[in-house]
Design brief:
Helices cover 40% and strands 13% of the residues. The protein is an alpha/beta fold and 353 residues long. The strands form 3 sheets. Strands 2-1-3-4-5-10 form a 6-stranded parallel sheet, with helices on one face. Strand 1, helix 4 and strand 2 form a beta-alpha-beta unit. Helix 2 crosses helix 3, helix 4 crosses helix 12 and helix 9 packs across helix 10. It is globular, with a radius of gyration of 23 Å. The termini are far apart.
């Protein structure tokens, strides 16, 4: 296959080769809009898929199978409000990563920097074995890691522009099993509560939900449904919008019998709203979550959910990173970790069943 060059990218976009070089260097000098256009064009043309196009640091891909010396793995967790090492979800993944690295005698450097120029200063490629990215990460940060030739694995996230190994819970199949449980109880009016643009996991869960309803001949929410595009799902700020929506549905006798929430945090806030407006769970409406964070069990009533083996995802990410280092030419993989349904008191048969 003919090599894709920076000049070809420049010609494709109608900009100079200098602009393309600056955008792909990670060192600034072009505005964000132009940089994103360059990155997207480079990806579409196959620039990033070329072997060694960005491999400035070849020593990383030449490590022997038995790693010698004290080396570390960067764990990149951009420091946004909900995604920290103290969270009930991400923190468990981090624990799994830490345990697996410690077992292998490898160090861990947690980086929460979200600005590319600051992130570059943190990197010391000579002492870095690879990187594990946890959760939402901006393409520009991943591009910088790719540019340096540092092997990486992403957990609960993937980037459409940059090819990497990824580790996810089996979101689609798991939400389908949850829906089938609700169908078995007699529910036929289910509604999904989320922002489906928030993360890849939320989109996968929405796809599994929609497929389960379609396979059972049930009506699915329209893609422009407001409950699929809630703002503030990570902070709970969506609560007033949800409250107005559910009260309107109740008034018009169109209330669903089951609310399938994209994660436990959303489900917990939904239960709080329903309790405040005197809609009984599960007497009048069933509520389910996803992830099985500790607070889901402590909620009132305790929430039926899907247990995501968060520590196992972290450990699997480390093993996948080691596989990538030992076999740098192998095809990229998306690893799906099985998740199991957890039955609790927030679900029951609908009143009319």
């Amino acid at each position: 296959m003919k090599k894709i060059t920076m000049q070809q990218i420049a010609d494709h976009l109608g900009v100079s080769k200098f602009v393309v070089s600056k955008a792909l260097s990670g060192k600034g000098g072009v505005n964000e809009t132009t940089k994103n256009r360059v990155i997207q064009a480079a990806s579409q043309l196959g620039y990033f898929a070329q072997k060694n196009v960005y491999m400035k640091n070849q020593t990383l891909t030449q490590q022997p199978a038995s790693f010698t010396g004290k080396q570390s793995v960067i764990v990149l967790m951009p420091n946004i409000r909900f995604q920290t090492k103290d969270s009930l979800y991400w923190g468990k993944i981090l624990e799994g990563i830490s345990e697996e690295l410690e077992m292998r005698g490898l160090g861990m450097v947690i980086v929460s920097e979200s600005r590319v120029d600051h992130f570059i200063h943190v990197l010391n490629p000579e002492g870095i074995l690879g990187m594990i990215g946890v959760g939402q990460i901006d393409s520009s940060l991943l591009l910088e890691v790719h540019r340096l030739g540092i092997p990486m694995v992403l957990v609960d996230h993937e980037d459409a522009l940059i090819p990497t190994d990824t580790v996810f819970a089996n979101n689609g199949d798991s939400i389908s099993r949850l829906c089938n449980h609700l169908f078995g109880l007699g529910h036929t009016r289910l509604h999904f509560i989320a922002n489906i643009q928030f993360s890849r996991s939320f989109r996968d869960r929405w796809s599994g939900f929609r497929e389960a309803l379609e396979q059972n001949g049930l009506e699915t929410p329209r893609i422009d449904d407001p409950m699929l595009h809630l703002n503030g799902v990570d902070t709970g700020e969506f609560a007033p919008v949800f409250e107005e929506w559910i009260l309107n549905r109740k008034k018009n006798r169109q209330m669903p019998t089951a609310l399938v929430c994209a994660n436990d945090s959303i489900a917990i806030r939904v239960e709080e709203v329903l309790k405040r407006i005197n809609i009984e769970v599960p007497g009048q409406i069933t509520v389910t979550g996803f992830d099985n964070i500790d607070d889901a069990y402590r909620s009132e009533p305790p929430i039926t959910t899907v247990h995501v083996p968060k520590e196992a995802m972290g450990r699997r990410a480390v093993r996948k990173l080691i596989e990538r280092i030992e076999n740098p030419e192998q095809v990229h993989e998306k690893v799906l970790v099985s998740a199991e349904l957890v039955h609790r008191e927030s679900t029951a048969a609908p009143l009319e069943a």
